[in-house]
Design brief:
This protein is mainly α and 155 residues long. It folds into 2 domains: 31 residues; 117 residues, no CATH class. It has 8 helices and no strands. The protein is globular. It starts with a helix and ends with a helix.
């Protein structure tokens, strides 16, 4: 009997959530837009500073950016977060628009290759995920057919 009651409660909650969404749509109320897509977020990207010093921290930060862009909240919640990752989440929240994610990846690459004494590069797997999701190709991959095929489907 308890299991049946739990199922009925779950169904009731789902029904209520659907009803609220349909009522707000019928009333012409738009759902609150994601702040990650606002123009102020783009200006935050330009002002954001990275602080990673090694490849591991760089990769962790990029992974958090990708998870937030992909809206993979379960994985994002469970993922290890270093200072850089926490700063990204505190500044931009846990969902990122493509423009914001791309801006962060480009800015992180600039920091990793030009601001540090020894340039850092993400792993091939991360570079591939970034190419697939954001269309960004690192300089090291400009002639790499394995990466280019994700941004140029005809090749």
């Amino acid at each position: 009997m308890k299991k049946l009651l739990q199922v009925l409660l779950t169904i009731g909650i789902s029904f209520t959530a659907q009803s609220v969404l349909s009522i707000s749509t019928q009333a012409g109320i738009e759902p609150k837009t994601n702040l990650a897509q606002s123009p102020t977020q783009n200006s935050k990207v330009e002002q954001f500073t990275f602080d990673f010093k090694n490849t591991y921290d760089y990769a962790t930060c990029l992974d958090i950016i990708l998870l937030a862009y992909e809206k993979r909240s379960v994985e994002l919640e469970k993922a290890f977060k270093n200072d850089c990752a926490n700063n990204v989440l505190q500044t931009f929240g846990n969902t990122l628009s493509k423009d914001v994610a791309l801006g962060l990846v480009e800015s992180a690459n600039l920091y990793a290759t030009e601001k540090l004494a020894t340039p850092l590069y993400p792993s091939l797997g991360l570079r591939r995920r970034i190419a697939i999701n954001l269309g960004y190709v690192y300089d090291t991959d400009k002639r790499n057919p394995d990466i280019l095929k994700y941004i140029n489907p005809e090749s």
